Amino acid sequence: MPDTAVAALAPDIAASNTSLRAYLHGLPGVDEVGARARAADLATRSIKTTAKRAAIDLAIRMVDLTTLEGADTPGKVRALCAKAALPDPQDRSVPRVAAVCVYPDLVATAVSALAGTGVGVASVATAFPSGRAPLDAKLSDTRRAVVDGATEIDMVIDRGAFLSGDYRKVYEEIIAVKDACGAAHLKVILETGELVTYDNVRRASWLAMHAGADFIKTSTGKVSPAATLPVTLVMLEAVRDFRAATGRQVGVKPAGGIRATKDAVRYLVLVNETAGPDWLDPVWFRLGASSLLNDLLMQRTKLTTGAYQGPDYYTLD
Amino acid sequence: MADQIFEYAPAPESRSVVSIDPSYELFIDGAFTPASGDERITTLNPADEEPLAEVAVATSADVDRAVAAARRAFDEVWGPMPGAERGKYLFRIARIIQERSRELAVLESLDNGKPIKETRDVDLPLAAAHFFYYAGWADKLPHAGLGPDPRPLGVAAQVIPWNFPLLMLAWKIAPALATGNTVVLKPAETTPLTALAFARICQEAELPPGVVNILTGAGATGRALVAHPGTDKVAFTGSTEVGREIARAVAGTGRRLTLELGGKGANIVFDDAAIDQAVEGIVTGIFFNQGHVCCAGSRLLVQESIADELLERLKARVERLRLGDPLDKNTDIGAINSAAQLARIRDLARAGAEEQAVGWSPACELPERGYWFPPTVFTGVSQAHRIAREEIFGPVLSVLTFRTPDEAIAKANNTPYGLSAGVWTEKGSRMLWAANRLRAGVIWSNTFNKFDPASPFGGYKESGYGREGGRHGLEAYVNA
């Protein structure tokens, strides 16, 4: 069960950058060529018929339907919320998505639009996407979103601090944000496209998990590359090993660039064969996406009726 | 429940892409011709023991005919032909293999039992790549570092094994043809079908008659072929036992010989290895192609300080391997190639248990029909055990531990074989240090069982002599 133990680092490890560095650099390395080869191998799994049907429904239930644009308006967010609660008005058997993900100032709009639907409201916070703001600004950003009713907070780590070796700053900032979240679940965005190496991804994953992350998330979607299969593989290995070491289960969320059903199914195969079936649940795995949902709906209709419908039969929100 | 959410539904590759004749004759001098004897061999699908086809058994009279045809083709057409022209034929063959790769992959999986994922993603792309690679050499031989005007040897007798039937054919035929030799090739008795399909590809490519001859048959055919005085070169891939016999037959005749024989490859994992990728490499090393790989990493040497953790991860990973129908695209482990091989694997696994090694296999349902053996890991193995010394040629891993780098090298080299080794460490200096000391023809650095036509392959000691692949592979087929 979640949250039974925080699994914080021992105080003497967390006390200085030297000891944190020794701990994080003591984790086993990641061979990049090997990690890519494993991800590519799993991408050749062939998921057909009943398995595909189950995977599509599971993927829909795992979607964090996202809009993070400067041009977002209350109207746009309300439309997205309607879609989240009832993805396909022509087919009521389609499950609802996991959550809607918006900027903090639009949380209240989303909360009222989603009242009673069971769809969560996630808010990015902590000066998303760059994370370049003073800590008190990040914390007030977070608190405001929680007060407005966000059930999940997607924070970004300070990549500058991480890359400069100031692991302690990253660690303590996550602890502070987790504290500001209260009951809301905390997803920690590593922005793996800026961390670049898989060794860094593994270290940042463990740092975030020890600091209290409920989820580790690949990307903001504003940096290229966003989510990739090998990066997600490394993060799934991290949550698997972290649970084995501490007993605490942490979720994973790839985000950005996942547009096709085929991609979503590949992520599910990766989860199934890396972290294991325990993670095949929206409580433990999410897909941060926007255009993916319509492709999932289109493929679902194809499996049901045997024919593709044109894009005009799916709502654009 | 969560564990029922994602059962992969069957995803079989279609068998209808390939048509198999009920019966095949010998391919001699550009045409399929009946054997002089009446004996036939039935080749089975090892996954269900159903017969696939009957093939002729070549007698020594048939070997005479094939060698004569190859000699004529060498003297009159292929030997005198300019390299650039020979290259065109090889490029054509490579392209046809590529175009027909789906059909050939299914045929190979049916006849051999290996999973379609491997024939599709490994055997076929590599077989085509070999022909492309050596096609490129055909008109550049004076620049291969083998003297100003390397000359072909003449007629090559080639005998290949059943573990990578079409790929081994490519390893043998492509360099021989590129250098201007003609060939008589015998595929293994349990896997003749892709070689016969290749004979048709030679016809389709309009390769001059006699340049490639394919004789099916068993041990007697092979013996007649390698002993034939009309051949100038013998190339063999297979067991060390048969290799010795061939070496005796060829000794003193002046004919050239290359042997690619058995192995007992060490896969060495140091305590600073990238552990998740090392686990993948161990799995690839021993469970790729059901362990029917001469260069398999069948001995895992793991540093004692990380042995428990590594084995726990390895077992969790092996539990996820999917064993079953070779034509299912999600199958990781296919069928054992023959009843005889299955009996040998069982015998050695029994010996491991009797010698007090601890065997472990995942809970895994074996199909009722066909030849199957579950992936197996033996721990508590010492150098004295049979399963640490003898080649099992099956999905059976022997795990040994070491304390220091010197001990790792000593144990790795303490084998009559010397074909392959793998080293896993994140430390570059240790990698180079280990590679310099290992007596093996191929050493993989943080990977295992990776092949490329440009890379030479071959062994030390009882693993054979000569190199195949790359520029070095040309040397075996020319008089420099």
Automatic annotation (TrEMBL), chain A:
It is an enzyme of class 4 (lyase). Pathway: Carbohydrate degradation; 2-deoxy-D-ribose 1-phosphate degradation; D-glyceraldehyde 3-phosphate and acetaldehyde from 2-deoxy-alpha-D-ribose 1-phosphate: step 2/2. SMART domains: DeoC. InterPro entries: Aldolase_TIM, DeoC, DeoC/FbaB/LacD_aldolase. Keywords: Lyase, Schiff base. Transmembrane segments: none annotated. The keyword Lyase applies. GO terms for cellular component: cytoplasm. GO terms for biological process: carbohydrate catabolic process; deoxyribonucleotide catabolic process. It holds the Pfam family DeoC. GO terms for molecular function: deoxyribose-phosphate aldolase activity. It catalyses: 2-deoxy-D-ribose 5-phosphate = D-glyceraldehyde 3-phosphate + acetaldehyde. Its EC number is 4.1.2.4. NCBIfam families: deoC. PANTHER family: DEOXYRIBOSE-PHOSPHATE ALDOLASE. Belongs to the DeoC/FbaB aldolase family. DeoC type 2 subfamily. This is Deoxyribose-phosphate aldolase. It comes from Marinitenerispora sediminis. The lineage of its organism: Bacteria, Bacillati, Actinomycetota, Actinomycetes, Streptosporangiales. The gene is deoC.
UniProtKB/TrEMBL annotation, chain B:
The keyword Phosphoprotein does not apply. GO terms for molecular function: oxidoreductase activity, acting on the aldehyde or oxo group of donors, NAD or NADP as acceptor. Pfam families: Aldedh. Residues 34-479 form the Aldehyde dehydrogenase domain. Signal peptide: none annotated. Keywords: Oxidoreductase. PANTHER family: ALDEHYDE DEHYDROGENASE-RELATED. Belongs to the aldehyde dehydrogenase family. This is Betaine-aldehyde dehydrogenase. The lineage of its organism: Bacteria, Bacillati, Actinomycetota, Actinomycetes, Streptosporangiales.
